[in-house]
């Protein structure tokens, strides 16, 4: 034992020194590895985030003003990425800068499909349709719709469907003026866009404009839109349990969706009967300017699971109807609301119309076509500013299909939800400047040329961007121009009710209060 102690004693300092050297070496190696490892950005969360519950309380409290809550936090984090958590649904990352939006919608498009969650959220209205489908299924549906929204169709659209419904709108306005009653522009614009699209796409005329009662399809669509949006802020288990038990929100949703499907089924049947009658009567369609959605569907490739099948058709039409009706109608409502709040902007718009359209007859039969409106730069600026500040599709969701990194240091794990809130993007001061929240059409006009400034879609994100950019964008812009100009050419409008400018949470961004106005003939 003494020999052992004698042997160990003199070597303790050496052992300690060796240990120290090894420790230092390991530390240096660890530091080098940490320096070489990717450093991801820390993603912030709201201060109200709770253990276990995450942001469930926030979402429940803000169910009716979700867009405002997302905007509030986006502004708090000065436009930087942030995230919120819903139990059972995981983390959702919120992105609102052009570089991040470009990565998600374009550069890494294949890494960010719509995903199964969004398909479930929109189940009943738009599941497995152009809005939510991925892969080949999405490709086939989009290809069919692109054919429908061709230049020839748009020309036919303006010359026939819109012109007829503008005439009906003018007739309704004249009757209202005689009766000295206000007009509900919210109802009018939703009637207008639905009637126009159904006639254009399916050859069916609902004749809703000026009707004494709302068409049942309108009522059911509005209720369904609001109920489906409520799913976003609720844990999946909660609304799925309600759906299984057929109680609460989900019971009301099912009832309204059933009514919507019944209405759309009836309209499709009318369209098919009209098409069959046309063929049986021997009507020559060789030189037909455009084909209805029904005809395009019947000609589209039926490739089983990936393509459109007969069972898909009603859902396909339903998704188009929701998109065509609500998005454009809500934009028109916000536009005319903004003009009532900014009479100086309305005056500039009328001055431009008086100058550029001075050669036209000023009688009541004048109809302004898209060709007439090409020179109206300020009108275009007013429309774009409305679309910027009040994007109809106020948020877009995607899901990461794999672990990936965007913008160099933002890590997104597989299965994580990504929210791109157009409503917040348009008010992001780091993107649009300190006056981002102001309605200022002049921001769109180049002072040097007097023309509209080109703005990339990743900044002006209202129509989304990349391969999934809104397929009906040109149609919407044309309808907005023609409807706005024709109404302002004949009338001015004064608010007839209290409207505070609050929005309502739904599949589209609507004005909460009905826009009641008094029309005054010019």
TrEMBL record:
GO terms for biological process: lipid metabolic process. It comes from the Eukaryota. This is Cytochrome P450. Its cofactor is heme. InterPro entries: Cyt_P450, Cyt_P450_CS, Cyt_P450_E_grp-I, Cyt_P450_sf. GO terms for molecular function: heme binding; iron ion binding; monooxygenase activity; oxidoreductase activity, acting on paired donors, with incorporation or reduction of molecular oxygen. Keywords: Heme, Iron, Metal-binding, Monooxygenase, Oxidoreductase. The keyword Coiled coil does not apply. Heme binds at residue 470. Pfam families: p450. Belongs to the cytochrome P450 family.
